[in-house]
UniProtKB/TrEMBL annotation:
It comes from Meiothermus ruber (strain ATCC 35948 / DSM 1279 / VKM B-1258 / 21) (Thermus ruber). The active site is at residue 115. HAMAP family: NDP_kinase. PANTHER family: NUCLEOSIDE DIPHOSPHATE KINASE. This is Nucleoside diphosphate kinase. It catalyses: a 2'-deoxyribonucleoside 5'-diphosphate + ATP = a 2'-deoxyribonucleoside 5'-triphosphate + ADP; a ribonucleoside 5'-diphosphate + ATP = a ribonucleoside 5'-triphosphate + ADP.
Length: 138
């Protein structure tokens, strides 16, 4: 069964949106097979966002993602990687389709509430960064 890495970002946790996001994931019919609240160590954040290293927004992105607790999850279901991207909406919330999480709850690209892996390769890599195999309970 396909799995993806989902994370309620610090702005989402601060604003009390964790329950709303979990609700949308579960209502859809996906299964949360691992979950934890954590403050991401700086080095882990830099690894997670490694593809953006060197870009002008990299420093701000790492500062933001380490600025408070996140809620990290592994979510399982048919086609879950692409489908979660669809439920999240576009990276830039003003481009996100109405009814998506980012359209409904975010206004800026630097604080866009949720992360979700964008391919099977990223899903595998990101799940491995944040979870040990024994923390995933199917
Ligand atoms: O997978 P996504 O989060 O939808 O998007 P991504 O992997 O391209 O970028 C990761 C995060 O980096 C994104 O959620 C917000 C931030 N980001 C991406 N592009 C920009 C950006 N932040 C700023 N300030 N400006 C950008 O152009």
């Amino acid at each position: 069964m396909e799995r993806t890495y989902i994370m309620v970002k610090p702005d989402g946790v601060r604003r009390g949106l964790t329950g709303e996001i979990i609700n949308r994931i579960e209502r859809k019919g996906f299964k949360i097979v691992a979950m934890k609240k954590m403050v991401i160590p700086r080095e882990t954040a830099e690894t997670h966002y490694g593809e953006h290293r060197g870009k002008p927004f990299f420093e701000g992105l790492v500062n933001f993602i380490t600025s408070g607790p996140v809620v990290a999850m592994v979510v399982e279901g048919p086609g879950v990687i692409a489908e979660m991207r669809r439920l999240m909406g576009a990276t830039r919330p003003w481009e996100a389709a109405p009814g998506t999480i980012r359209a409904d709850f975010a206004t800026t690209v630097d604080e866009n509430v949720i992360h979700g892996s964008d391919s099977p390769e990223s899903a595998q890599r990101e799940i491995g960064i944040f979870f040990k195999p024994e923390e995933i309970i199917g």
